[in-house]
């Protein structure tokens, strides 16, 4: 017995025949006939008598249907309670790379959900391999992966084997992020060796496929002058205070550049293509709060300075 079979049974009682029930429920008539047969065989009773005027319930059948109606009322009440609770409570667990546009999307989502009575929201930053682990084994709903396009086949196969759906967000080339008044803001770098006289800021908590450590960028050349950071506030503060500092950055919201007095500069010496891809378990449609975050993420991605 399942809930659908009970709904078919009550519909036969309400509409008087299998064909009429099928029409009202937009269901296939053989499916409803099979459901009735399954219930009669499972409980070893005859629920309906067939007549020229339609389906007439037996005495046992009538009592069975009355109990089925009570079960369905309880199920519908439970469903409504869950829906109402979901409307009052935002629950979201998402893993993000160090991408400013993604953090802005998270804040946009929090603003939308602020009126709710309950919020259970986890926003975590890290590398792509860590993000996949959190989605596969730690109960996170969504992850935004960032990787070099040359690794696309690796990630595509990895996600497909583990039942994860991939949704592209943006492709980009890293640019130099630096103080608007610093020397690199006005200088076009044609040889990466030119950067050795400046100070590089880099995130150091990424992990490439099959490698220990590494920040996802394979073309760093500044070995002598580096500052390793692990969260976004430090990087912006350093760039504000040290005009000779720089870091490789993805597209950013214009308001973030203006707020921190920074500028993005294209670098002809660097052409590695990167990709941001959203991943989540491929088990049907996203929940309302998940889709709301995805919509905001796509919106912020479209508004970035590239």
Can you give a write-up of this model?
Keywords: DNA-binding, Transcription, Transcription regulation. One of its GO terms (biological process) is cysteine biosynthetic process. It holds the Pfam family LysR_substrate. One of its GO terms (molecular function) is DNA-binding transcription factor activity. With 306 residues, the chain is α/β, with parallel strands linked by helices. Helix content is 43%, strand content 25%. The strands form four sheets. The chain has a five-stranded mixed β-sheet, with helices on both faces. α1 packs across α2 and α5 crosses α10. The longest helix is centred in the first third of the chain and has 30 residues. It is elongated and about 95 Å long. It starts with a helix and ends with a strand. About 4% of the residues have low confidence.
**How many strand segments?**
14
Average pLDDT confidence is 85
Q: What is the strand arrangement across the widest sheet?
A: 4-3-5-13-6
What portion of residues belong to β-strands? Answer: 25-35%
- Round the Cα radius of gyration to an integer and report it: 29 Å
Shape: elongated
The CATH H-level homologous superfamily of the largest domain: Periplasmic binding protein-like II
Low-confidence stretches: 206-216
Whole-number tally of structural domains: 3
Structural class by sheet pairing and helices: alpha/beta
Secondary-structure arrangement, i.e. CATH architecture of the largest domain: 3-Layer(aba) Sandwich
CATH class of the largest domain: Alpha Beta
Helix fraction by DSSP (H/I, runs of at least 4): 40-55%
Query: In whole angstroms, how far apart are the ends?
Result: 57 Å
- Helices, by number, come to 10
Q: What summary fits the major beta sheet? A: 5 strands, mixed
Helix-strand sequence: HHHEEHEHEHEHEEEEHEEHEEHE
CATH topology of the largest domain: D-Maltodextrin-Binding Protein, domain 2
